[in-house]
Structure formats: C-alpha cells, structure tokens
Design a protein that fits this description.
Oligomer: single chain
Strand content: under 5%
Keywords: Bacterial flagellum, Bacterial flagellum biogenesis, Bacterial flagellum protein export, Cell membrane, Cell projection, Cilium, Flagellum, Membrane, Protein transport, Transmembrane, Transmembrane helix, Transport
Number of domains: 2
Main location: membrane
Family: Belongs to the FliP/MopC/SpaP family.
InterPro entries: FliP, T3SS_IM_P
Membrane topology: Multi-pass membrane protein
Number of strands: 0
Length: 221
C-alpha cells in the first residue's frame, strides 16, 4: 500500500490522470455484463427470441449462441443513439480533461435514465421509490439508478412475456388442431408434436416469422 501511494505521490499529474482513466476503463468492463443485461433492451429481446424457439418446439434450434448473439447485436443497434450520446457528452470530454470523473458519471447516466424511464412503468418505479422512502423525483435526472434499474428490468420482463404470449397463440392453435385430428382418427399413441412441428415451421417460414418478430421488437422501442 505504501508503494502504491508513493507511486502516485512521485508521479506527474498526467501519469496519475492516465492511471485513473485505466482504472475507470477496467471498472466499466467488469460491470459491462450487468449494464448490458439490466440497462439496455437486451433483456426483452433475448426473452422474446427464447419464446419463439419454445413456441416452435424446435428444442435447441436455433442454438443459444445464435439467440444471444442476435440479441446482442440488436441491442447494440437499438442502443446506438444512447451510446453515441454517452460518448459525446461524457467519455470524450473526460478523456480530453474537460470534465472530471464525477461530472462524466452524471452526464453518462442521463442518456440511460432517459431510455430506461421511457420504457419503465410508473407502478414499477413507484414500488422501489416507496420501499426506499424516497420522494417522487421532479425530473428524469433526479431518478436514482438504484430504483430505476430494477424497475426497468421488471418492466422489460413483463413486456417480453406479453409479446411471448402473443407469439404462442398461433402455434397453440396448430397443436390443438393436430391433436383433435389425431384423436378423431384414433391415433392417440402418436405424439401430436411430431405431426405439428413441420406445420409450425412451415407456417413460420411462409409468413417470414423472424422478420416479423425482429420488426416488432424494433418498433416496440
């Protein structure tokens, strides 16, 4: 510890500034998975795509790597304006020594707060604010991230489940029709999934299902 303090005492301000920036970069990288999952649209996208695979009953097709990769790049595409605003208002001025670390944090939080508050239900946000006994914020900037992030997360999960329910309906109808036909033919020992799976895949391909799902996700933001 003494050697660490001696290094900073004997270093020039430029070296200390560079060291602080490196520590900041490492901290952001270590928190990147949590930021990606809970503060962006990644949660909604990956849940909806998982619902699509479950509704199709295709087991592991497409595999998890494809679903997560597609969700990741869709999240980057949707969040690009937010990331660009953070870079212009917080990161670039910080690296140019125009603002300090605390100011950069405050400026970087504002674009995320604006995005999350636009997709957070008031009831969910009020739940965490009431539990923390915090006063109702007068502006988006005044909303604490400790309350906004979990409220945004549960709002995204609810929205994703609502979209997933709508996706399930047409495939459920196919399963019911196939099961009724098999029972009327006395073929009760034949699993309906074996017969309905090709029809569900055919329907999904004919209507260009992946295009419709991705378009719906993009329009939901």
């Amino acid at each position: 510890m003494n050697e660490f303090m001696e290094f900073f005492n004997n270093s020039s301000p430029a070296n200390v500034s560079t060291s602080v920036k490196l520590i900041l970069m490492l901290t952001v990288l270590s928190l990147a998975p949590s930021i990606l999952i809970l503060m962006t649209c990644f949660t909604r996208i990956v849940i909806v795509l998982s619902f699509v695979r479950t509704a199709l009953a295709t087991q592991q097709m497409p595999p998890n790597q494809v679903i997560i990769g597609l969700s990741l790049f869709l999240s980057f595409f949707i969040m690009a304006p937010t990331f660009q605003q953070v870079n212009e208002e917080a990161l670039t001025p910080l690296f140019n020594d125009e603002i300090n670390l605390e100011q950069a944090y405050e400026k970087a939080a504002i674009p995320f707060k604006e995005f999350m508050s636009a997709h957070t239900r008031q009831k969910d946000l009020a739940l965490f604010l009431d539990y923390a006994k915090a006063e109702p914020p007068q502006s988006i900037e005044a909303i604490p991230l400790t309350a906004l992030v979990p409220a945004f997360a549960i709002s995204e999960i609810k929205t994703a489940f609502q979209i997933g329910f709508m996706i399930f309906i047409p495939f459920l109808v196919i399963d019911m029709v196939v099961a009724s036909v098999l029972m009327s033919m006395g073929m009760m020992m034949l699993p309906p999934v074996m017969i309905s799976l090709p029809f569900k895949i055919l329907l999904f391909v004919l209507v260009d299902g992946w295009y419709l799902v991705v378009r719906s996700l993009l329009q939901s933001f």
